[in-house]
């Protein structure tokens, strides 16, 4: 029997059909109808009103990263729509599944520079996996089904739907069918068996193999398959920044992080191994440094779901397209059990070197001033087994990536590819909703915190148990570090005069405390962790702290600097 | 580092989706590759559009461009070819004063020699059409120039592969097979 409903109602029912339980958004004139339709389903679909559309997108990203589900954003047209661009670009680079729905002016007004009209399709084409303008109500079920399929399947990414107000108001006979196939899109490339056999043969005959694993292992739910692979092969493993959580930090074969501020041993060993096996990662320039001198001595096997990443940044001797959930165990099945004891042992002196020159100074500094690194390590030690730890961007991010002991149940979330300051606080809001049983930490610097601090209002309104650790050095620390090392200490626009963060946070009714002496830190942090609901802990860290090791941008790995 | 640049012909087959042209050209722009010519039209398959794009690039770059184009969800397939792998053609129109046609036999000779043809003659002007490779079209242009050319326009390239394998049809058949597998 035909039942005519409005496009807005169809949108709400379509979201329910996709099992959406949380929508992050901000209403406005051309999207009110959809908010109104969702209001009727508020028991099933929670709508979270953020304080800015950028916050809504980062929150949806945090939700998606913590839950593995698609993050959903609902915003209005014009400025509401253009405010989603940074988050979409971030999600595109970090492969985060999002469906962002924006309102749009009436169809007859399109292209006429009408009020709050912006060409969202044109603006977001380069930063979305797919985008589509909905002009009639009849397109809504098709477009929503397709959007969720594209956002979720294959290499995930953001999808933008630009929905005209006419489509929201029109009547439609609603039938929903989930999308399971798109003729022009192969989300899971077929795995080439010959190449799998070749990879196994190379791994079996390698003497100094090294695996570098990225977020693809997490997105493909292949953490178990990774463990079986490395335990059978005995291959030492390094992770990318985005792949920090795929393997427990404590695993004896986990050699730490590669890249610009990664660990010494895996970075140096990249240029000594005879076989490099890259799994679900994309050889970002922050990982490789100078590409021409990267792992030249090694054969390279690259496994990734996105064929366009293969042979893009680094030439692979064997490029295997496909979901690592299936390609990895296919290789493991053909491996002879092995252990590369001597090769693994050869990492130890480099670990020792880093311990002496970097880690001991980070964790046991001589002076009274606290380092970011010791604060983050304390958080790592005091926090529980089920954690989502979100960092912002800059020195705080590198300190957290290096010193927060991540694992599949202690997720580390950061803005990797785009490096979006301000990501942390709203992403932690999303993580709190996406992983309600986990302890949620938001590790920010004073700069990034102030880019999206208005989201304290969202935390207050929904009483979300986000624990904010504000590492305050009164500088934009990472840029300041570069100015100190490369620009003779000319601190152009990196000094920050900050507000009283405790008062600011208290104004939102969120408990806050500031610590500037090491003696107080442990007790204060324990109290902060144990507190019910949200809480902020501001720690005054040394103003001119540095993050080492460091490979200067574009330089070969061998140019790594260990200390000033 | 300046690597040798070759003229490549990129063919893209896509669904007929609004904004596809922009999505395709963005990839060239981001990789700093200038598009020499671009032709877009419906293909023989209903609902499928074909782009034929020429650009100078080194092979590594054009391969990455093609991979990144193919990554777009609404793009069915994209390939790149060198000139020896395809049959290709351009078409050009030359508008010359009819007086120059009548005054000498030069233009008539050119039309015969270049296998061109006259589309329209009136008291003021004559329109000549020629199809061929870019250098042939250019040669006729240079030969006509002394007699005076009022207007000249050339199309982008269109191309067909020399291969005996029809890769798009094979791809569509494969995708249909996958669709049937999923619906079971």
Question: How would you describe what is shown here?
Answer:
- The complex is a heterodimer of chains A (564) and B (184).
- In chain A, helix 1 packs across helix 2 (32-39) and helix 3 (53-67) crosses helix 19 (424-434).
- In chain A, strand 2 (22-26), helix 2 and strand 3 form a beta-alpha-beta unit.
- Chain A is an alpha/beta fold and 564 residues long.
- Chain A contains 24 helices and 20 strands.
- Chain A has three domains: 4-173, Thiamin diphosphate (ThDP)-binding fold, Pyr/PP domains (Rossmann fold), CATH 3.40.50; 193-348, TPP-binding domain (Rossmann fold, 3-Layer(aba) Sandwich); 366-540, Thiamin diphosphate (ThDP)-binding fold, Pyr/PP domains (Rossmann fold, 3-Layer(aba) Sandwich).
- Chain B is of the alpha+beta class and 184 residues long.
- Chain B is built from six helices and nine strands; from the N terminus they run βαββαββααββαββα.
- Chain B has helices spanning 20-30, 59-71, 98-103, 106-113, 134-144, 167-183, and strands spanning 6-15, 35-42, 48-57, 75-81, 86-97, 117-121, 125-132, 151-154, 158-161.
- In chain B, a hairpin with a 5-residue loop joins strand 2 (35-42) and strand 3 (48-57).
- In chain B, 26% of the residues are buried.
- Chain A binds chain B through residues 121-122, 125-126, 129-133, 150, 180-186, 306-308, 311-312, and chain B through 14-15, 17-19, 22-23, 26, 30, 63-64, 67-68, 70-71, 73-76, 172, 175-176, 178-179, 182-183.
Gist of the model:
The complex is a heterodimer of chains A (564) and B (184). With 564 residues, chain A is an alpha/beta fold. Chain A contains 24 helices and 20 strands.
N-C termini distance of chain A = 75 Å
What is the CATH superfamily label of the largest domain in chain A? Thiamin diphosphate (ThDP)-binding fold, Pyr/PP domains
CATH topology of the largest domain in chain B: Alpha-Beta Plaits
CATH architecture name of the largest domain in chain A: 3-Layer(aba) Sandwich
Protein structure class of chain A? alpha/beta
Oligomer: heterodimer
What proportion of the residues of chain A is helical, as a percent range?
25-40%
Instruction: Determine the structural class of chain B based on helices, strands and strand pairing.
Output: alpha+beta
Number of helices of chain A: 24
Major sheet size, sense and barrel closure of chain B: 5 strands, antiparallel
Task: Identify the strand order in the major beta sheet of chain A.
Answer: 3-2-4-5-7-6
**CATH homologous superfamily heading of the largest domain in chain B:** ACT domain
The helix tally of chain B amounts to 6
Helix fraction bin of chain B: 25-40%
